[in-house]
Amino acid sequence: MASYSMGDLKKGLKIEIDGVPYKIVEYQHVKPGKGAAFVRAKIKSFVDGKVLEKTFHAGDKCEQPNLEEKQMQYLYDDGEYCQFMDTVSYEQVGISDDDVGEAKKWMVDGMMVDILFHNGNAIGVEVPQVVELKIVQTPPNFKGDSQGGKKPATLESGAVVQIPFHVLEGEVIRVDTVRGEYIERVSK
């Protein structure tokens, strides 16, 4: 396993500290007037999503994590775990709701998602940034509702987004999963 020193650190690098995988989200090389240079970094845990501030000094080492990303198909939620299948080997993996996190509100049966594994254990799920979902519930339109307002819509995945008045129940829309916002109606 590769090891990183202070000079190797940069934004976006994946590192492992005390058996926990992190990603460097901010990086600052500091060279004070007195004393040795050091690196101040903000690192985000792949396990629980927490962001920590860590200082690295010359001579400090951190390991390269054993991370693997696989594209898998979401099958169903059994109440305790979300079940995913590798479409090549047909191997199934159950991931707890806590590890799936925010991605769950955008997932529908059959959707392809990216699963992150650390040392063979599934630790996270990432849905595509843009997904197409059907509106299953939204208030009806009324005369005069054509002026740029918004109304709530419940999607087939269970997520609720604000949509323009002219979009109706039963239509398919594109949604930005990062911001949780309506993008456009999918043409029929």
UniProtKB/TrEMBL annotation:
Residues of the Translation elongation factor P/YeiP central domain: 69-123
Coiled coil regions in record: none
Pathway stated in the Swiss-Prot or TrEMBL entry: Protein biosynthesis; polypeptide chain elongation
InterPro entries: Elong-fact-P_C, NA-bd_OB-fold, Rib_uL2_dom2, Transl_elong_fac_P/YeiP, Transl_elong_KOW-like, Transl_elong_P/YeiP_cen, Transl_elongation_fac_P, Translation_prot_SH3-like_sf
Family to which this protein belongs: Belongs to the elongation factor P family.
HAMAP family: EF_P (MF_00141)
Protein name: Elongation factor P
Name of the encoding gene: efp
